[in-house]
Design brief:
The chain has about 300 residues and is an alpha+beta fold. The protein contains 5 helices and 11 strands. The termini are far apart.
C-alpha cells in the first residue's frame, strides 16, 4: 500500500506550483533551438501541430561597383582623297584646207572618202571639185558615180593614178593649182583639148581650163555589131565642132546624150558608162552631168584638138 501510495502521490507533487517567494525563471531555448517548444503529446492527437522552422534569409549580396569604361582611343585620321586629275581635252585633227570636216581618228590622218559615202565631207569635196571645173552635178553629199568620175578627172589632171578613194594625197592636191600642160598652147583662147594618153578632156576659156573631165575614147579594136563593122578608133588631129544634137539620140551603135560632132560620126557625148579604159566605138564618152555643161559651153565651129595615144 505504501508503494502504491507513493506512486499515487508523485504526480501530485510534480503538479504543485512553485511557491510565490521563488521567482519564476523564464524558459530559455536550448542551444540550436528555434525558441519554440512543442509538447509532443500524443502522436495521434490531431490538435498537436508541428510548427516549421523559420528558414534563415541569406545575407544580401553586395554588387561590385562597375569599373569605368576607358574612353576609346582615337582611330587614325583618314587621309584626304586626292582630287581627280582633269581629263585633257580631245584634240581635234585639223581639216585639210578647203575641205573642212574631213578628220581622222589620229592627228594628221585623213579618213578616206569612198563611193557610197554620205557626209558633209563629201558635200565639201563636191563643191571643191565644182569650183575647179571637174564636177557639175549637185552638191548633195552623196559619193555617187558622177562624183567618182569627177575625182578620176581631177586625179588624172594632177598626174595621179585615178582611184575612187579620196585620201590625204588627193585632198592635198586640191589646194594646188598646178595641172597638166596644155596640149596646144597656141590653139586659141577658147578650144577643146582631148588627151588619149590621159583619157582627159579640157575646155579652155581665155586660155584657162574651165572644164576638165574624165573620158573614155575608142578602144582601138575591130568590131562588128548590128550589121556594121569598123575600127573603134578616135582619130588624132585638129578638128572643129560641126554640128550638135541635144538630148538623147539613137545611133546604129547605141544611145548618145547631148552630142557635139567634130569629125564624121565621131562626137563628144554624155554616157551612163565611162570606164577607166578606152571602151567606145570611136566617140568621146563624157559623164552625163558634165556633158550638160560641155554641150552648153562648146559652140559650133570651136576648135577640137586630139593628141596622144592609148
Amino acid at each position: 500500500m505504501a508503494a502504491l501510495a507513493a506512486g499515487c502521490f508523485l504526480p501530485l507533487l510534480a503538479a504543485v506550483p512553485a511557491l510565490a517567494d521563488e521567482p519564476s525563471q523564464p524558459d530559455r531555448p536550448a542551444q540550436g533551438n528555434t525558441g519554440l517548444e512543442t509538447d509532443p503529446g500524443d502522436p495521434g492527437d490531431p490538435e498537436v501541430k508541428t510548427v516549421p522552422a523559420v528558414i534563415a534569409v541569406p545575407a544580401v549580396i553586395t554588387v561590385p561597383v562597375a569599373k569605368p569604361v576607358p574612353p576609346a582611343k582615337p582611330g587614325p585620321v583618314a587621309k584626304p582623297v586626292p582630287a581627280a586629275k582633269p581629263v585633257p581635252a580631245v584634240k581635234t585633227v585639223p581639216a585639210v584646207k578647203g575641205v573642212k570636216g574631213v578628220k581622222g581618228a589620229h592627228p594628221g590622218k585623213i579618213v578616206p572618202l569612198r563611193p557610197g559615202d554620205r557626209s558633209e565631207a563629201v558635200r565639201q569635196l563636191q563643191r571643191r571639185l565644182h569650183d575647179g571645173g571637174f564636177y557639175f552635178g549637185q552638191s548633195h553629199g552623196i559619193y555617187d558615180d558622177q562624183t567618182r568620175y569627177a575625182v578620176w578627172g581631177f586625179q588624172k589632171s594632177r598626174g595621179m593614178t585615178p582611184r575612187s578613194e579620196v585620201g590625204q594625197k588627193t585632198l592635198a592636191a586640191l589646194n594646188q593649182s598646178k595641172g597638166l600642160r596644155p596640149l596646144v598652147p597656141q590653139g586659141g583662147a577658147d578650144r577643146v583639148e582631148i588627151s588619149l594618153s590621159h583619157q582627159l578632156l579640157t575646155v579652155y576659156r581665155d586660155n584657162r581650163p574651165a572644164l576638165v573631165t574624165h573620158i573614155s575614147t575608142g578602144a582601138e579594136v575591130r568590131y562588128c555589131e548590128k550589121g556594121h563593122c569598123g575600127n573603134a578608133v578616135t582619130p588624132v588631129g585638129d578638128f572643129h565642132v560641126e554640128r550638135k544634137a541635144p538630148g538623147w539620140t539613137q545611133s546604129r551603135l547605141g544611145s548618145m546624150f547631148n552630142s557635139s560632132y567634130f569629125v564624121g560620126g565621131i562626137a563628144m557625148h554624155g554616157s551612163t558608162e565611162v570606164p577607166l579604159r578606152p571602151a567606145s566605138h570611136g566617140c568621146v564618152r563624157v559623164p552625163l552631168s558634165t556633158s550638160v555643161r560641155l554641150y552648153n559651153m562648146v559652140k559650133v565651129g570651136e576648135p577640137v584638138y586630139v593628141r596622144g595615144q592609148i
